[in-house]
């Protein structure tokens, strides 16, 4: 029996709060932005993240435990829609990350058309947070390969007919994600050879990131949090520093929330390890080696 009187310390609520914080960081949203979008008070959201949310969720947990199922199965989602889904979910339960990755890649191979792997290696997608060097190194890499260079954010703006900030303010985050997926799909369809600089939050939408991994040779350009901030500021954009003395901590939380996804890339390259020119030379060498292109 769950003691509802002591729910503020219940581990289920604590883990629920942690997941909310992780999802918020992964999407790069402030607590205020999430509260406004959800139409709840910021204080209520803060309590939820602290593990002292409404005790009614614990009643659902108690019923689920009585039925020997998860809360997800009680509420219903795609994995509860058929016996096959339930059987697949049961097979995957308890597997470690390496095993799950093998399953994911096997499924992707199963549904990929013949010859797609060769095409994938002719499209390079750079992922990572702003300030990692995706635009700067991506453009130089594209010039070196004599391939087109596509800044996916600019393509998103073309489809939406307004800039990124306006998309979020006028239509919301869900609309932005739809434009982002469409821009990626159109870019993949339009170019047989291309270097793509992707928005930092692309990994937040699983379907879009799956598309990226299956259609492109993906490279995570990673950097120290301090370098991310200083590079963005050096480009004249002071927004990450404006109005918040906790900008660096916020960025670290976002990076923590996304790193496990970025790490699914085919290659990881540290742009904080050396200056720009040396970074480009080494990135060029590694990519040409991985794609078996002549130097």
List descriptors.
295 residues, alpha/beta, 434 Repressor (Amino-terminal Domain), Rossmann fold, five-stranded parallel beta sheet, 60% helix
How would you describe this protein?
This protein is α/β, with parallel strands linked by helices. It has two domains: 4-96, 434 Repressor (Amino-terminal Domain) (Orthogonal Bundle), CATH 1.10.260; 107-290, Rossmann fold. It is built from 16 helices and five strands. The chain is globular and about 60 Å long.
CATH class of the largest domain: Alpha Beta
**What overall form do the CA principal axes indicate?**
globular
Q: Number of DSSP strands? A: 5
Number of helices: 16
Summarize the helix and strand pattern as letters: HHHHHHHHEHEHHHEHEHHEH
- Give the integer mean of the pLDDT values: 84
Structural class: alpha/beta
- Using only C-alpha atoms, the radius of gyration works out to 21 Å
Helix content: 55-70%
Strand content: 5-15%
CA distance, first residue to last residue: 67 Å
Uncertain regions: pLDDT < 50 for 5+ in a row?
240-244
CATH architecture of the largest domain: 3-Layer(aba) Sandwich
- Give, in spatial order, the strands making up the sheet with the most strands: 2-3-1-4-5
Q: What do we call the CATH homologous superfamily of the largest domain?
A: P-loop containing nucleotide triphosphate hydrolases
Oligomer: single chain
Assign the CATH topology of the largest domain. Rossmann fold
- The total tally of domains equals 2
């Amino acid at each position: 029996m769950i003691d509802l009187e002591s729910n503020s310390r219940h581990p289920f609520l604590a883990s629920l709060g942690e997941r909310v914080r992780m999802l918020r960081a992964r999407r790069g949203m402030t607590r205020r932005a999430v509260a406004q979008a959800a139409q709840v008070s910021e204080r209520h959201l803060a309590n939820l993240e602290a593990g002292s949310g409404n005790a009614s969720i614990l009643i659902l947990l108690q019923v689920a435990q009585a039925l020997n199922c998860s809360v997800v199965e009680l509420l219903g989602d795609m994995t509860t829609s058929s016996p096959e889904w339930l059987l697949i979910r049961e097979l995957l339960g308890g597997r470690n990350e390496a095993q799950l990755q093998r399953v994911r890649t096997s499924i992707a191979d199963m549904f990929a058309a013949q010859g797609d792997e060769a095409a994938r290696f002719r499209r390079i997608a750079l992922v990572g947070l702003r300030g990692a060097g995706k635009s700067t190194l991506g453009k130089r890499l594209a010039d070196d390969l004599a391939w087109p260079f596509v800044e996916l954010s600019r393509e998103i703006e073309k489809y939406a007919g307004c800039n990124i900030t306006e998309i979020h303010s006028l239509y919301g985050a869900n609309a932005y994600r739809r434009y982002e997926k469409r821009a990626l799909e159109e870019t993949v369809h339009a170019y047989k050879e291309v270097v793509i600089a992707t928005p930092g939050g692309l990994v937040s939408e699983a379907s879009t990131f799956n598309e990226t991994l299956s259609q492109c040779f993906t490279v995570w350009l990673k950097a120290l949090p301090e370098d991310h901030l200083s590079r963005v500021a050096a480009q004249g954009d002071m927004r990450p520093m404006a109005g918040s003395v906790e900008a660096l901590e916020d960025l670290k939380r976002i990076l923590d929330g996304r790193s496990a996804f970025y790490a699914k890339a085919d290659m990881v390259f540290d742009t904080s390890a050396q200056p720009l020119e040396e970074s480009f030379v080494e990135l060029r060498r590694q990519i040409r080696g991985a794609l078996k292109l002549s130097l």
